[in-house]
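Dear support,

Our group has been running a series of protein-ligand predictions, and this particular one with zinc ion is the one our PI (initials K.S.) wants archived with full inputs and outputs. We had some confusion internally about which version of the output was final, so please treat the block below as the authoritative record. The input we submitted was:
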Amino acid sequence: MRDFSQDHHWLSINTATVRKSRGADLPLPQIIEACARRGIRAISPWRDQVAAAGLNEVSRLVRSHGLALSGYCRGGMFTATDEAGLKLARDDNRRAVDEAKELNALCLVLVVGALPGALAGKAAHKNLALSRSQVTDGIADLLEYAKQADMPLAIEPLHPMYAADRACINTMEQALDVCDQLDPSKSGALGVAVDVYHVWWDPKLQAQIARAGRSRLLAFHVCDWLTPTNDLLNDRGMMGDGVIDIPQIRGWVEAQGFAGFSEVEIFSTGHWWQRDAGEVLDTCIARHRSAV
Ligand code: ZN
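Confirmed final output from the archive:
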């Protein structure tokens, strides 16, 4: 297992972690500058942040600073109630692939979606099996497009508490079943993003990481699970402040040959987004050394 204690060579910052500084929106160009100043070599930006700053401008900044993208957030949300909705999702996902390509991302992260309408507060139906089949179909379609662009797709299984509204793929096993179905040759075009926040509790985690193997492990996301957790979405903890044994999981991932970035992804309305972004980045660097 790699020694992270001496440097932050393999640290990536998911830019949602500092999307707010002292409670105010922080534009992506400023986030990029702040990361570059600290010798952070990689980021993973969100599409809304890129759109606000302009794709060309972000692309220019990323290149001028020599930043890698450990991933691009995000594609997915494949489910809908009708053909028109499915087509909208398909077109939007293709644009996400194009943007990821322009930014030279290592993968496009997929949060696959769940019951249509649930995120807005009213689910159109209760048929999770239907949603799961739409997700598989959506990924299959996108995979053909992404292969031509040479952009790997990383399915991110989300914690089961999001099964209704954000993602109906909730375990590594489920995600890998889809991978095996759509990409049986393990071509590298389709894999998983292992986010410790979503999968740490899973008794099958170690076995499923081994099943994934090198070719399917496309991204590794870190933060921590706080006790208590006060918000289902935006109360993620800084590494070392919660109950996840992050080094153990990193060890399992690296035992398969994963040698990429550890991407810090913290949504924290009440705490970290209230702090100064520079202080948050400095803390990420310190905890990457001590707790990842
Ligand atoms: Zn994640």
